[in-house]
Specification:
Length: 227
């Protein structure tokens, strides 16, 4: 998989994309992640890529021209399955979307900034708009990092134990069950006996019940029980 990220702040993505699972996946060539500085596509002598809104609204707007140049250049080199714009009013990102995106070959993520992009970008150049939550960030770089992390860990070969990702929260519509490790007892706090029993059937039954109980208590909306 290849992920191209177009941003005004490329250095902001250096750390999130250079550690842990993403680092190993890049080194193993499971995923190729290329960060592009949008200012490289500006024809302005000061490398500006924003201007005032025609509406007179406060705040600056990302211009269509440099964005179009960046996307057009990338599209001249390969076919993209999705061109994503990170926006607070996009569809809410979830595990289902991460699973879907992880099956793609080539993706562009355009990071929003300022008051957003010229609407014509959204109307004509973007195939999908994604939000990571109902709040506003300074820019879309952190959202792009979240999206990239969530789908990269699902790629075959990205994790040493691929079955681990399949048991994560949300994969089966439930929160994951509680987990424990050694020591079996600490300060009088004990690991549930069933997890020490070695009885696979009983352990699986406990995990399912625990997942259901946690989901009902913490995220009842996932079970359609929201008040």
């Amino acid at each position: 998989m290849r992920i191209d990220i177009i941003t005004l702040l490329p250095k902001l993505l250096d750390s999130p994309l250079s550690h842990s699972i993403i680092k190993r996946a890049r080194e193993a060539e499971v995923v190729e992640i290329v960060v592009h500085d949008l200012r490289d596509y500006s024809t302005d002598k000061h490398r500006n890529v924003d201007d005032y809104a025609f509406s007179g609204e406060a705040g600056m707007v990302m211009q269509i021209e440099p964005i179009d140049r960046a996307i057009s250049r990338l599209k001249s080199e390969r076919i993209y399955d999705e061109i994503i714009y990170t926006s607070p009013d996009g569809e809410n990102f979830n595990q289902k979307i991460a699973n879907e995106l992880s099956t793609k070959q080539n993706i562009i993520i355009l990071c929003g900034h300022y008051k957003g992009v010229d609407q014509r970008v959204r109307d004509h150049l973007i195939s999908r708009e994604i939000s990571i939550g109902d709040y506003v960030l300074t820019g879309g770089e952190l959202a792009a990092a979240v999206i990239t992390d969530a789908l990269t860990r699902l790629l075959p070969g990205a994790m040493s134990d691929e079955s681990s990702a399949l048991s994560d929260s949300f994969q089966d519509g439930l929160l994951s069950p509680e987990v424990y490790t050694r020591p079996a007892e600490y300060k009088g706090w004990k690991v549930p006996d069933v997890l020490l029993s070695g009885n696979t059937k009983k352990i699986e039954e406990w995990k399912l019940k625990n997942s259901l109980d946690r989901t009902k208590r913490l995220r009842p909306d996932m079970l359609g029980e929201e008040d």
